[in-house]
Amino acid sequence: MRIERPRRSALIVAGVLACSAGVLFAAAVEYPLSMTFNAQVKANEATTITSQVTVRVDNLMLESRRVRATDALQHGGFANFVNVLRTLPPVGSIALPKREVFIKYARETTDQGGTRLVLIADRPLVFLRPEEEKARAGYELTIVELRLDAKGRVTAATMTGAARVKPAPDGGVILDDYAEAPITLTPRTNPS
After folding, report:
1. What distances in angstroms separate CA 13 from CA 18, 87, 158, 174, one per listed residue?
2. Residue 37 and residue 188: Cα distance in Å, rounded?
3. For 112, which of 11, 73, 98, 155 is 20 to 30 Å away at the CA?
4. How far apart are CA 84 and CA 81, in angstroms?
């Protein structure tokens, strides 16, 4: 499965909710996992916003819960997906210095010789957009995507502070980010 950003069609994030794609790769990442990142996003040509983001993953979600969540999205749409996520127990958190959301979806797959870790919280962490008049309704998720090498070091990381998703006709997932661009995460520390 793949995720497409409608406003940025060239930017495709492969399979946030990979129903059947990917093989679990447990050797590179050990849980519990805690990492701190410098987060940066351009608000406009003249303004860059920076903050600290801490990601904590106690464990991956159970496979039965992942299937229930992805089935809800594929067969019932975004509202059903969010409703299912909200019934699941938290498996970690994504936090700014003064705000925290709880991870309900945590999926690890192999991808391009490393590990891809997708984390989804059932609440938005931050709304970033220069156009304040854009409605916030429906942007219910926070999504973090981490790519790690074979030694567990982060090679790429992004966060969507407020998003919604919908099934794509090809079986993928379309990501609608409230912000103009994803937030870039740079590790302050890497797991050892």
Report:
1. 11, 26, 10, 9
2. 5
3. 73
4. 5
Q: Quote the CA–CA distance of 179 and 124 in Å, as a whole number.
A: 12
Among residues 185, 114, 191, the alpha carbon closest in space to that of 153 is found at 191
Span 151-175, pLDDT tens digits: 888 999 999 988 999 888 877 788 8
**Side-chain half-sphere of 118: how many Cα atoms within 13 Å?**
19
Answer whether 0.90 is exceeded by the pTM: no
131 burial level (CB within 10 Å; 0-12, 13-18, 19+): exposed
Burial class (CB in 10 A: 0-12, 13-18, 19+), 153: middle
- Say if strands 92-96 and 99-111 run parallel, antiparallel, or are unpaired: antiparallel
Radius of gyration of the CA atoms of the chain, in A = 16
Residues 6+ apart with CB under 8 A from 136: 124, 127, 162, 178
* CA-CA-CA-CA torsion sign (182, 183, 186, 190): negative
